[in-house]
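Q&A FORM
Asked by: J.P.
Topic: structure of NADH-quinone oxidoreductase subunit D

PROVIDED:
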Amino acid sequence: MTEPRTGVGRTERVVGIGAGAKELATEDMILNIGPQHPSTHGVLRLRLIVDGERIDTAEPIVGYMHRGAEKLFEVRDYRQIIVLANRHDWLSAFANELGVVLAVERMLGMEVPVRAVWARTLLAELNRVLNHLMFLGSYPLELGAITPLFYAFRERETVQAVMEEISGGRMHYMFNRVGGLKEDLPYGWLDRTTQAVSDVRRRLPDIENLIFGNEIFLARTRGVGVLDRETIMQYGVSGPIARASGVDLDLRRDEPYLAYGELPVKVVTRSAGDCHARFEVLLDQVKVSLDLADACVERLRSLPPGPINQRLPKVLKVPEGHTYAWTESPLGLNGYYLVSRGEKTPWRLKLRSPSYNNIQVLREMLPGHLISDMVAILGSMFFVVGDIDK
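REPLIED BY: S.T.
REPLY: Here is the structure written out as tokens.
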């Protein structure tokens, strides 16, 4: 038995349940996207209130993959933390490792050998290419285009080969160490890296031509999911998503770390702030990273033989104090706030991951859009669920 009630701009319906129980409901439908894989990117849940086919409100609900990484950091020494830190964004493992070692080295006042600095910069850019190629292939797939995925994975495997050769790992490289890198570059590795970069650069237009000339892709992405600068500032959105809305911020240029201060870092921006602009930024950033990789290779060739790391004591203790080290990871600003009490484990190690902030802005972006546009918007946010939940 139901009894309709009317209110301001909304119709409510009282529904009888069981032995005379009553529950107040509205004509709007509550739609849960996830937490299974229909959310398209893993265990993320979106709670939507929809009016017909149009989204009225959206609430991202996170935490389904939470593993307490920050508390795990606190009971492991500074060598062991690296193996945990590279896993929250499994597409950016090398970049994740950097935040930890940079924070510890700063606390120690340690100067890293110049060969390690340039090799780290090179590997960070190769990791950025791997990250972006994954999204360049998977995003069109979510809109119904399967072919770009094969092209993107061909280029990923080309870069992956040199990353696997130097580190021995395919996803979780575990190649950074406090004071440098695990070991020196293999003989002939720079030549093979140069060839891999050249091959990817030569074939990248295949992906570009395949997608940007597609009328369906343009119709599904242009003017959809527009994110303005003010909202970006309020939510702390960073990385390619922010730069697609005209936020000209990149730590590699603005607060250089590693060898970026000696490199011409071109910051790619767009002004439209829609799904199409975000995809364009990602593609152009691959080209920039390939150029930076070439520059790092040339510098490494010119350096004389030397150490790739610093010798460390058997038990590494960090002096009492605190510091914040942040880097421009492939998905945005990735920061580690380290607090030490002079022990071999951190007293506190807080992780600021880019995906968490980037996904919260969905509550502002999705309302007013059709449900069919939700997938296009969600895919263009380029997030990793482990990077949200930590």
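FOLLOW-UP: The CA atoms of residues 85 and 321 lie 21 Å apart.
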